[in-house]
Structure formats: C-alpha cells, structure tokens
Amino acid sequence: EFSQSDLVVKLDANPTTGYEWTFQIDGSAVQPDGDEFVPASDGDQAQTGEGGVHTFNFKADGTGEATITFSYARSWEASDDDKTVMLHVAADNGTFAQVEEQA
C-alpha cells in the first residue's frame, strides 16, 4: 500500500526458521524509512515456529524510478524455498506516482 509520500510493504515472514527478508534498492527515487517484524500472536514474544508480518517503510525521494527487490532467504545457504518480490516504483517531486509488482 502506498500514499503520496509513503510506501508500506508487508511480507509474511517466519524468522524462527532462519529465513529473513532483505531488500536492495536500484535507483535513487526511494529511500528506506525503517522496518519492523510483528509476530502473529498478541504476546510480546514470538512463539517458537511462529510467523508474523515484516513491514518495510519507504519514502519517495525526488523524481525518477527505482526497483526494490526483496529476498526471503537464509543468509548461509541458497534454497528452492527462497522467494523474491520485485516492486517497480516511480516518484515525481518527492511523491509516489506509481508502484507495481514485477512478475
């Protein structure tokens, strides 16, 4: 979801498996603005084996285009379970004009 100046990306995650989301930005039209993992349970501590949602925040920066590539993997190995999500974004004068997922 995105507004004119903010982009929020929510991805299902389960860090107890060793998998985590990382991202890379190609282009200057987007800047990272923090991220947070929230467990699915209501408690303060994630239960073993429990997933949740990893939320990433981005801000539009200037005018131009960028690609944000999210990778869900273990840092120590490559696997068939690895996932990738790519978003193409366009910013116009510090506001998001377009955000679309790449197939």
List the helices and strands and how they pair.
Elements: E1 6-13, E2 20-26, E3 30-39, E4 52-60, E5 64-73, E6 83-92, E7 95-102
Antiparallel strand pairs: 1-4, 2-5, 3-4, 5-6, 6-7
Strand content: over 45%
Structural class, from helix and strand content?
mainly beta
Helix content: under 10%
How many alpha or pi helices? 0
Major sheet: size, sense and barrel closure? Answer: 4 strands, antiparallel
Give the overall pLDDT as a whole number.
89
Name the strands of the widest sheet in spatial order. 2-5-6-7
Oligomer: single chain
Overall geometry comes to globular
Report on this structure.
This protein is mainly β. Helices cover 0% and strands 60% of the residues. The chain has no helices and 7 strands. The protein has strands at residues 6-13, 20-26, 30-39, 52-60, 64-73, 83-92, 95-102. It has a 4-stranded antiparallel sheet, with no helix packed on it. A 3-stranded antiparallel sheet has the order 1-4-3, with no helix packed on it. A hairpin with a 2-residue loop joins strand 6 and strand 7. The model has no long low-confidence stretch (mean pLDDT 89).
